[in-house]
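@channel anyone free to eyeball this complex?
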Amino acid sequence: MPHSRSMLRGARRLTFDPATAEDLVQETLLRAWRNFDQFEAGTNARAWLFRILFNAFYAQGRKVRSAPVLVPLQMPGRETEPQSRADHTLLEGAMVTRALDELSAEHRTVLLLAVVEGFTCREMADILSLPIGTVMSRLSRARQALRERIEPASPALHRVRAGGE
Amino acid sequence: MVVGCKEIAELAPLYLSAELDRARSAAFDAHLKSCPACMQELERQAHLDARLREGIMAETLDAVNFDRRVRERIAAEAGKGYWLPLSGLRGRRWALAAVGIGAVLLVVAAGYRGLLGPHVARVYADAALDHRREVIEQQPRHWLVDPAQIAALAETRGVAGSAPLALAGNGYHLERGRLCFLDGRIFLHLVYSNGAAEVSVYLRERGAESLPGRVRETENGRNLRASNPGDEHVASFQTDRLTVVVVTDQPADAALQMARFAATRL
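replying in thread with the prediction:
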């Protein structure tokens, strides 16, 4: 289905539950299918679908869940330390996504839309029904919040770097 | 226009999403050249963005099975009397079509590259791979969605600006466009949607190259060829001025149908 992967990625970060995320995207696609005549040719279909997704999410009184409690990345003992570049990449990716999940729902949403899905600030303003100035300031604060969670030392990563990769 | 460090921080989101107008973008660039601190800050931000993007994209999604379930639910709703937008198919006929689409999706299991045989022409294999990555897997990319901008982009590649919109119709609308490489050559990649499925059409100003593969049929004097590299279906033809490659992940005839339509419009 068009754009289902993008929406599944976003819905997972809203709900933190794969089954609920699938329900939400399925509902979004069904609404889009029923109302396809309202889509204006030549406009951004992906932005239109995301707007439906957020409307569907909030219309049903669903609340953005907090991130689940996660197991710390750094494990005791050398046998658990990553050895290869692939391990390092996986670890780094997991660390960044965990930091994203720890952010507020507002910050998580704008980072996903802007950084991962590539929406412009104007498109996000339309999707989220917010003034563009609010989107810009929220995005700046979200980037700062993410950086504060990632850059203050990651022992596991530091061990990799110190290991001479 | 002069911008300072404070404005740089405020405008950074628009700069990173390429939304600044030309004057402010030039002023932004000028400040970065003269301010190492702002430049370093922006580079750190761009690096963090890239890490976040890679981290999210590395996560697995079972979109194929999800798509199948959605198609089945749409088919069930269509059976209750909903109209399928644009296609004109009603209820039971759409349900049958959806079952066919679902069957094709179920076949998608053996991976992509493993199914490519040496007999598949490189341009078709590249087109199928590009369609899979950019349309099915939906890698985040910057696409043009404004038909006027897509037309301007087409003209930069020697393709008539009217061509992208000329291929809209037959139940499909032009959704987005960008440039890509197929077999080492630049093609204009256009995506058309009918609301339930997307079709990729790759256009290029015709050079000396000729398309490989057996001619399946002739439409409007154009020889239509078909190929199946992996899970995608490819149809192609050439006019005096253009090379055209159509790719879908829908049942095989969908690619040929779009190619037939395109052969009458280009």
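from a first look: Chain B touches chain A through 54 residues (CB under 8 Å).
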